[in-house]
Amino acid sequence: MSENEFEQIFPLGDKNDAYARYFIGQSYLAPLTDGSVPVSNVSFEPGCRNNWHIHHGTDGGGDQILLCTAGSGWYQAEGGDPLSMEPGSVIRVPAGTKHWHGAKADSWFSHLAFITPGQDVSNEWLEPVTDEMYGRLPKNGLLP
Fold first, then answer.
1. Which terminus of the chain is less hemmed in, N or C, by CB atoms within 10 Å?
2. pTM, two decimal places
């Protein structure tokens, strides 16, 4: 399936070149709102995922909210099992949680992403999700 055949309700956006060094594979970014709680649609080609990363913040800020809107993807927090994300899945990533998210090997994936406002909100990019680790995920996209 090409990006032109990937159906979703939000725009695909432009190639996410500004953050390409933090992704394996091609991602796309479509900013939807700005202001105190900017919301973006992030889309991933099959097999694309972002690096491990941590969102920081204080006074209630820095939590990341992911709302899957199309396709099928993975979310994983350090030390936890990978979670399958399908349209309608919602994940709250508490500030300070090392995690990654991205498409399954055989599917495009899109989610809305936003960070809760607060003080000292920042993002720390870490090491890539290795091909070896990613390759251990279920091939059919389903967990036992």
1. C
2. 0.91
Strand 64-71 relative to strand 90-93: parallel, antiparallel, unpaired?
Answer: antiparallel
106 in a structural domain: yes
17 Cβ contact list (under 8 Å, min separation 6): none
Indicate the average pLDDT of the chain: 93
Tell whether 139 is covered by a domain. no
Residue 79: give its domain's CATH number: 2.60.120.10
Positive/negative CA dihedral, 78, 79, 80, 81: positive
Residue 21 exposed, middle or buried by CB count within 10 Å (0-12, 13-18, 19+): exposed
pLDDT tens, residue by residue, 29-72: 999 999 989 999 999 999 999 999 999 999 989 999 999 999 99
How many CA atoms lie less than 13 Å away from 5 in the CB half-sphere?
A: 5
